[in-house]
Amino acid sequence: MTSTEGNGGGSSAAPAESNVPDSQNTSDSATTGNDQSNGYENPSNTRRPANVALKQQRMKSWQPLLDPKWVIATYLLIGIIFIPTGIALHKKSKDLIELKTIYESYTKAGPPADVIGCEIGNSPNQMYLNNEQTCQIQMQVPFDKGDMQPPVMVHYELANFHQNYLSYFNSFDQYQLFGSMKQDAVSAGDCNPLNIIDGTTINPCGLIANTLFNDVITLVSIVGPDGELIQNAPMVETGIAWSSDLEWKYRQPDGFRSEQCASCDQCDCTELNGEGEKAWSCKEPYTNEDGVCFRYYYPKDDTTQYLYETYPMVVSPLDGVTNEHFVVWMRTAALPLFRKLYGYIEQPIPAGSVLTFNVQANFIVERLEGHKALVVSNTYIFGGKNHWLGTLFIIVGSVAAIFGVLFLAKDVLAPRKLGDRMYLKFKDD
What we know:
Helix 2 (68-95) runs antiparallel to helix 10 (387-413). By secondary structure, this protein is of the alpha+beta class. It has helices at residues 22-37, 68-95, 126-129, 166-169, 174-177, 185-191, 243-248, 307-310, 324-330, 387-413; strands at 98-105, 135-140, 152-158, 196-197, 200-203, 216-223, 235-236, 257-260, 286-287, 293-297, 304-306, 338-345, 354-360, 371-377.
């Protein structure tokens, strides 16, 4: 008798019935057999990586064995390299000359202003509106540190201004800054509330563009230690922005055009085009520092307030958003105390020289409870005066050297054989 139960040693189960026709099974088996016999696998039926060393993880590698000697040598080497490097960086930074004058301050616990006459309180654009009034700042190069070698950088410093707030950081329209006159809903939302005010479109919109630092700083003179005026040493205000920003991020509005006039008398902004419309949007010609006159056209000028109209003391109608002071400002700072480049001097300044600046104060800091400062300094390969970089190298090198010495003492006084079986522990049975 044959058993049909599955718990017997000699029992067998009946094979399951297949729903696939015999002809199809035969065909599939034949195809698979041919592919495997030829060493070929259809790429559409597999996700196996190619049979190369990189994809099959057969690349040759070297993994160091971190024995005590290697660890001690590494720590000591880090200390030997980092400590002298930190000392050298600290000395380089200490040798730099930095002249700083706070010319308006409302910080509660910070330093007071170093000069008087530059305060505008809570009245923005006060000096510009008051017949372009200015205050004066004088700085003297110390005698004991030598000459200030070019380039001599001129920065402005702001305290307690938080450009890193997310609502501030995102408040701009990148397409508008690159010339677009159209705005989508997302960009409009980012720019609010400084987008459209009482039917007037603000261009460029947003918080960053409309809080531009608009104090006007002018280098009046540099008088040497002998009392002689140093000639041909102006403060250059071009080349202070990233060239990539100027090329790829900022452009005058689509439709803008300008024209240099043969003479200021012949520069007529009321000229009409062939259709009887005004060919130029300017009310009067723009005259640059060289006395050359220009006329210009901005699209939709009657319903739009452009940057040169918001900040006429800083931005000319010919530059607009390509003004380099504006481009520098649009690169937001990570910390509430920051400096931004205003210009640079390309001539060496002898020790003992006196620099005189005129400042037209327009930017208010009373609401910020911060301060404004003018900073003149030279630089080295790692930037301006900053003792923290050298200090950090010294700290890292010292910690590594201490660990190296401790591990060396341990290895000498109480050595341990690498891979000693006496330290192996087995599980209890």
